[in-house]
Amino acid sequence: MTTVIAECGNLPAAFTSFVGRRLETAEIRRLLCVRRLVTLTGMGGVGKTRLALEVAAASREAFADGVWLVDLAPVSDPSAVAATAAGALRVPDLGALPFLDQLTGYLAGRRALLVLDNCEHLVDACAELAGTLLSAAPELRILATSRHTLGVTGEHVFALAPLAQDDAVELLRDRAPAVRERSHGDEAGHAALARLCADLDGLPLAIELAASRLRTLTVGQLTDRLENRFALLTGGCRTAPAHQRTLRGMIDWSYELCAPAERLLWNRLTVFAGGFSLEAAEDVCSGEGIAEDEVLDLLDRLVAQSVVLTCEASGQRRYRLLASIQEYGRERLADSGEQDALRRRHRDFYLALADRIDRNWYGPGQEENLARLRAEHANLLAALDYEGEPRPRLALVAALSWHWCVGGFLSEGRRQFERALAAAPEPSEERARALLAAVWVAQTQGDLATADSWLEEADALGELLGDTWVRIQADGLRGVSAQYRGRPQEAIRRYEATLAAMTALGDERTAACWRLSLACVQAYAGDPRAAHTGSRYAAVAEESGDVWGRAQVLMGMGHYAWARGDCDTTETLVRSALVGMRGFNDHAMVARMVELLAWATAVGGAHARAARLLGLADALWHDAGSSICAFGPQMAEWHARCEQAAIAALGEASYRQAFAEGGRHRTRAQAVDFALAVDTDSGAGLDCGRDTAYDTGTECDSGTDAEAESGAESDIGTEGDTGTDAAIDVRETAPSTVRRRHAPDTADTADTEPASPAEGRHVCDVLLVDGDPTVREDARRILEASGHRVRSAADGLMGLTLFRQQTPDVAVLAERLPGLDGMGLARRIHEESAVPVLLLADRDDPADVVRGLEAGADDCLAKPFDGTVLLARVRALLRRTAPAGRRRDTRTSRFGDLVYCPVSLEVYKDGQPIHLTTTELKLLREFAASPGTVLTRDILLERVWGCAWAGDTHVVDVQVMRLRTKIGRDRIETVRGFGYKLRA
Asked: Among 49, 175, 832, 976, which has the minimal tally of Cβ within 10 Å of its Cβ?
């Protein structure tokens, strides 16, 4: 078997042809159309696995979400069945949920075929897995192979008989080239082959083993030997099933035909689980009768005799034994007395491999190394199961940290750490370092309490053992916990100290880890040094081949640029980061990048594409068993704002349609391709032909003076070395050079110009956006005291959302804003409307005023300002842009005999005013904003009641009924099973 042949699936391609079984293939395919679980049963060697693979390959087109092989032969622990299935399906293990729950969630809603191969030694666990998955995933089909039925309700058992005579002879001819032409058309030769196949009971495995010997023996000689062998076997245990006696006899015969060195290698190869490489075989199996340079030749001979099978994985040739062959060899190995020594060599080989990858992680070959560890996953678990000396076990589980945290085996890593630590409680250097590695896993899972407990023990061990390295590392990991708890300044301090200490110790590998972490936390904290730190790391990573670290830095740089309003830079950096993540099985990180791309796209006005990207991210989060909320409340808030902006621009129905379209791109490769593609529908989005490499000469146009002096380029922020993202509130941490005096309160405005009699107390609708809560609140009170209606926001993105939800008469914007700065927001407003903009400059400097006016502001006022001046500037803008005496009802909405003014909140029916309660007004506001669009009860609950409501959705029905009695029962239509909509 060889390469993977489908992007959405993992079926191996066969080296040899499939012979016979036409009727069986057709029947099993038919059964899979009407039955959800089909189990192929039969004796060992009858060809269950090969037939199942043939059926699966022929059925690929019927399963849009792929056909997947789960080989359970190397699995000995029933509790590992779900984990093995999840690994085969490439389900990212990034959460603390049990594997069965993760797999259930992954397959729900997918149309896929799962081949559970070699279930007989794990029948109960396989039955539980099949029953649970079939209950949760109605479009799933399972094809199992087992010597025993699974006993699951609805199971259809297909008993596979040995090959028919003609098929058996054809198989023998196909596998034995020496007799193919010699017996073709020869009746006597055909009869001899038929007799041999009959003696082999028509078992494909036996036929293949016999075919390998027809190069040196005649058919008659081989038949004679088999007859003698089977005669002896018949006299064995009478209580054993006949087919088991025949198969063992076949393997006995094949074993005895091997040379002594071949038998020895056969025995030793059984120490491997799930396959092995030539390098592993040479290292583990040589010695005591086999020289290292003899292994290749002996292995080749075993392959020729069909004892060992070959396959391709990640471009490398690998070898494996069939389950029955492996079990037979293990018995012989146990009898030889060298099993324990061989398992120790097996463990030491994989410890050396893991340690080598760990030491050289921040360099080239990361994707290849992770792929190799994934291919060796079964062997790694077998090495960790070896109950020899406990210290090497601790060293191995710690050296595999990248495999656990970046390779997609987080929960398995947690389990292995807990087992290894429990088995070796004695104080030792290995335990201290394993504790530190375990802390990374716990922090990545969000279990900070356990992480802190392990940190304390590691620190205490470091002090006890006099290990300075351990204590320094423990302090750095305390910084990670601080970062995840929202204390970025503490994290920065600890990271800087740890980086300096590791550099002084000459440990450049660990120093690189903390240099990356420092760049990340600086970026998310809005530290002006982030650009310089991140740019340097990205440049070094590019030169050294650190693809993973560079992708994390570029994603973070994109986040920092986005927080400062430079969405073009964000898009460029995130695209480059996504390209870098192609080779990593990290669904959650790709989801983070897609989320950020959606946020930047929404600010750019391409709301349809933003909705598609949010749908894509949602699918990735689902597959990862996580969500944007796991990275902190601020990230969840940005997500919600992006979603609200898209809904406001597109309407609920169009948003949901675009969201669902993005969610169809489910695999990691599809996700990256879709996120990088041009949005042909809207003309917005990203050009796939653009150079996505990190450009160290591209300056962020929103850089601070400190950054300019340091020569920093594109801004940065990313996850720390732990592979997760700590959500830091940019609004709270963004640097500010503004110095403001206290604005006058309401009493200070008593002498200001009163509201115009034509407009009553409501003079105009003001959009006020300022990140300083004190200035924002004082300005709001000044404006409202003069009769203006004020809607305020603390960041540019929310300001843009409010603007698009309801057009104001004038916008008052602070120059420096998180998310989208004031000048960027002013440009957006002028692109979409004629609304005048008053920009609040950070300094009383003519250059700042000029810069603001050139950026698109209609007027500019420097901070700190006087409240009367603010009011005078607003009135001046209104006089220049609006005709005198303009009435507020010019922006009213009419729905038949119903008139609604969203500004004055007045409602008329047949020309008569209607009094509505606050809740009824909010309901009408939502319906009027999207006439003809169905609004579900959940949407109305979220928009009208928000977090204040803890009851059920029945309150919506009650309030809608009351609103209907006032505005007309036919005005709001019930869409059964969904919600309500306003008739336009």
From this structure: 976
Structural contact between residues 189 and 234, judged by C-beta atoms closer than 8 angstroms: no
Q: Is residue 628 part of a domain?
A: yes
Percentages helix, strand, coil for the chain (3-state, rounded to 5) are 60, 10, 30
Residue 977: how many CA atoms within 13 Å on its side-chain side? 0
CA distances from 391 to 343, 432, 472, 930 (A): 15, 11, 22, 65
Question: Measuring CA to CA, which residue among 55, 61, 3, 67 is closest to residue 25?
Answer: 55
Pairing outcome for strands 155-159 and 37-41 = parallel
Rounded Cα gap, residues 973 and 938, in angstroms: 17
Same domain, 552 and 631: yes
Q: Which H helix or E strand runs over 981?
A: strand 979-982
- Could you tell me which of 363, 216, 208, 373 has the C-alpha nearest to residue 280? 373
Q: Which two tokens stand for residue 64?
A: 């849009």
Q: Is 834 helix (H, G, I), strand (E, B) or coil?
A: coil
Q: Is 123 exposed, middle or buried (0-12, 13-18, 19+ CB in 10 A)?
A: middle
Give the span between the Cα atoms of 511 and 517, in whole angstroms.
10
Cα–Cα distance list, 496 to 500, 521, 533 (Å):
6, 11, 11
Full-model pTM: 0.60
**H or E element in which residue 513 lies:** helix 508-524
Q: Which domain holds residue 764?
A: 746-886
Number of domains observed in the structure of the chain? 5
Residue 363, in any domain of the structure: no
For the ranges 469-483, 743-757, 943-957, the one whose mean pLDDT is highest: 469-483
DSSP 945-976: IGGG--S-THHHHHHHHHHHHHH-TTTEEEET
Lowest mean pLDDT among 286-300, 716-730, 756-770: 716-730
Specify whether 692 is located in the same domain as 764.
no
CA 512 vs CA 442, 495, 500, 544, 550: distances in Å: 21, 11, 11, 11, 12
Residue identified by tokens 């109305």 is 940
Q: Tell me the pLDDT of the chain averaged across its residues.
A: 78
- Give the pLDDT band of residue 580 (cuts 50, 70, 90): confident
How far, in Å, CA of 794 to CA of 773, rounded? 7
Helix (H) or strand (E) holding 869: helix 867-881
Question: Are 687 and 771 in the same domain?
Answer: no
- Please identify, among 215, 241, 267, the residue that sits at the C-terminal boundary of a domain: 241
SS3 at position 1 = coil
617 within 8 A of 598, measured Cβ to Cβ: yes
643 and 565 both lie in a single domain: yes
What is the per-residue pLDDT across 363-376, written as a single tens digit (0 to 9) for each? 899 989 998 999 89
Task: Collapse the DSSP code of 789 into the 3-class scheme (helix H, G, I; strand E, B; otherwise coil) and give the result.
Answer: strand
Q: What is the pLDDT of residue 354?
A: 96
Task: Give the model confidence (pLDDT) of 240-275 as tens digits.
Answer: 334 344 567 667 777 887 889 999 999 999 999 988
Dump pLDDT digits (tens) for 775-791: 888 888 888 888 788 88
DSSP secondary-structure letter at 912?
E
- Give kind and range of the element (H or E) at residue 320: strand 316-321
What's the rounded Cα separation, in Å, for the pair 476 and 727?
Answer: 18
Question: 13 in helix, strand or coil?
Answer: coil
More confident residue, 619 or 833: 619
523 and 654 belong to one structural domain:
yes
User: Is the same domain home to 934 and 788?
Assistant: no
- Give the tokens for residue 956: 């919506």
**Rounded to an integer, what distance in angstroms lies between the CA atom of residue 541 and that of residue 553?**
9
Q: What is the mean pLDDT of residues 301-315?
A: 75
* Mean pLDDT across 764-769: 88
- Dihedral sign for Cα 57, 58, 60, 66, please: negative
User: Does residue 689 sit in the same domain as residue 596?
Assistant: yes
209 near 196, Cβ under 8 Å?
no
Rounded-to-10 torsion of CA 568, 569, 575, 577: -160
Do 853 and 925 lie in one domain? The reply is no
